[in-house]
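In response to a reviewer's request, we include the raw inputs and outputs for one of the modeled complexes. The four entities were modeled together in a single run.
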Amino acid sequence: MDKKALFDKWVSFTTSVHQVTHELTQNAKSDSITPVQYNILEYITVSQPVTPSEISDCQHISMPNTSRELKKLSEKDLIEKLSDTEDRRKQYIRLSKEGETMMNEAFAIVESRFQSRIRNASKEDIEDIERAMDILQTKLFY
Amino acid sequence: MDKKALFDKWVSFTTSVHQVTHELTQNAKSDSITPVQYNILEYITVSQPVTPSEISDCQHISMPNTSRELKKLSEKDLIEKLSDTEDRRKQYIRLSKEGETMMNEAFAIVESRFQSRIRNASKEDIEDIERAMDILQTKLFY
DNA sequence: CTACTTACTTATCATTTGATAACAAAACTA
DNA sequence: TAGTTTTGTTATCAAATGATAAGTAAGTAG
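The model returned the following structure tokens for the whole complex.
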């Protein structure tokens, strides 16, 4: 297989990943937050504590818009802001108790859908899947 | 590894896929179309000819909004609408010459970024990547 | 032929998102 | 200390997106 064919395969593969991700995550989030807010919360969940700048960089949202959305999340009591004691310009963002509860619920829905998707997979299948994800994450999606 | 751990790995994996996809595709599209319009064109590109209903289903856009965006793409001469001769309610959407040119340019940018990402991969790496994508597409992202 | 369904369109409205300018406060640097 | 950079905020505006109601035209079923 030449490199052009590998690219085509990559296109098809990523399309499938996006498709399935959408299936598993749709309607999992609470209606009280917007899609962008959910993405931010998801990022905070796996990376906390994070600064607004990091959120801005990783989620590709401008600082003013990041600040606005964080303010809204804060007003909804889903996150907490802590000032860095060293550099008082910086803030550390964490999920609040409520935010954690909300994200746990969302993740539980997604996980149950995920588990039912692999319900019929054999032990060998699971190991194959695991290995394949490791390979791709190391060699392609680093 | 238990199934919970596999789920965690899946979360991390899909996050990476989305991250890298974003890197490779950012600014590849023409400024004259919106992100949603690009997604629609991308779908048409790989699946043409398609009906508005199929676009609506697969891209998760309501029929009224799909219709609106297709109208805009049509006004920009990027797509062509053909009525089905059998069932005259149906339409078949295809890229126009201009639409193809635009999508070819976008894909060329993405592909060159993709190729430079795997520039350092050995022949074995390429084969591993290829196999891993096959496995995941068959067993997980079907 | 009538009623119902399907495929798509038009119009309208509210919300979300993205972009920009202007600002403030803290930290760094020469 | 004066000027610069970093980090974040506020305000404002335009564009993109999502949702809904109402309508048309073609096909289908009784």
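As requested, we also summarize the result in words. The longest helix of chain B spans residues 3-25. The two ends of chain B are 22 Å apart (CA to CA).
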